Design the sequence.
């Protein structure tokens, strides 16, 4: 009888361990889904974009099943820390302030900040020339922080919850220009809505490194770093890059 009980206990423990192992093989990636071409939703409501493709490739290398959890940009880091998802792959700039709240992987692409404005506008990008103008930017982004820190006393900075809403106000003439990530604006300028607008001046920030965020101390960071090295080495990263851009953004 004792032997049978031990057998049952051992079998139950094995089942629990197996269930935990299966659970460990499933991860959730957090994405804003409102920042094309890096992340947005297609006509069917599916999350698509560069970030999603990178996340899927990393999950494949780690041999884990991943699902997507979307989150509003303003609350995306608190959502990660509240365990609504396991890692955040949503074009998040690596900053000292954010490092206090989360850990970052190595950068998975590099970005720049640049202004856009109407093609026919006399729009110089130095502080004196922009004095009195209204410039739009997305809230809680590196572009928003840069604009407020450098031009905030001379420029009327208008913050938006999404990049798309900034574009809508630019088209409506409610703002004079936008400061945002160059590669996001590059995509919009190719669209029908963006055809009458262009980049103005040189990039104002060229060292914007984008990383994947995990909770502080999470060993998942090193697994993601290892997977990132693998997709770069075997050409997977380049295939994803070339799907969206005719130049390397790594």
Sequence:
């Amino acid at each position: 009888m004792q032997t049978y009980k031990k057998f049952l206990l051992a079998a139950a423990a094995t089942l629990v361990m197996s269930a935990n192992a299966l659970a460990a093989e499933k991860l959730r990636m957090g994405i804003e889904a409102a920042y094309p071409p890096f992340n947005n939703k297609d006509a069917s409501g599916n999350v698509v974009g560069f970030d999603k493709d990178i996340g899927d490739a990393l999950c494949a290398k780690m041999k884990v099943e991943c699902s997507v959890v979307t989150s509003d940009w303003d609350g995306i880091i608190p959502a990660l820390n509240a365990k609504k998802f396991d890692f955040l792959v949503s074009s998040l700039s690596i900053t000292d302030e954010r490092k206090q709240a989360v850990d970052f992987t190595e950068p998975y692409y590099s970005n720049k900040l640049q202004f856009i404005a109407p093609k026919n506008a006399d729009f110089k990008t130095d502080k004196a020339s922009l004095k009195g103008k209204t410039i739009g930017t997305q809230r809680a982004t590196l572009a928003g922080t840069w604009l407020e820190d450098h031009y905030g006393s001379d420029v009327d900075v208008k913050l938006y919850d999404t990049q798309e809403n900034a574009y809508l106000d630019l088209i409506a003439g409610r703002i004079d220009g936008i400061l945002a990530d160059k590669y996001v604006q590059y995509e919009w300028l190719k669209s029908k809505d963006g055809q009458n607008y262009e980049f103005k001046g040189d990039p104002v920030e060229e060292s914007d490194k984008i990383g994947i965020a995990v909770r502080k101390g999470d060993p998942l960071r090193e697994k993601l770093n290892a997977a990132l090295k693998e997709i770069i080495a075997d050409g997977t990263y380049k295939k994803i890059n070339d799907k969206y851009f005719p130049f390397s953004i790594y």
The domain at 111-207 is CATH 3.40.190.10 (D-Maltodextrin-Binding Protein; domain 2). The longest helix spans residues 2-24. The first strand starts at residue 26 and ends at 31.
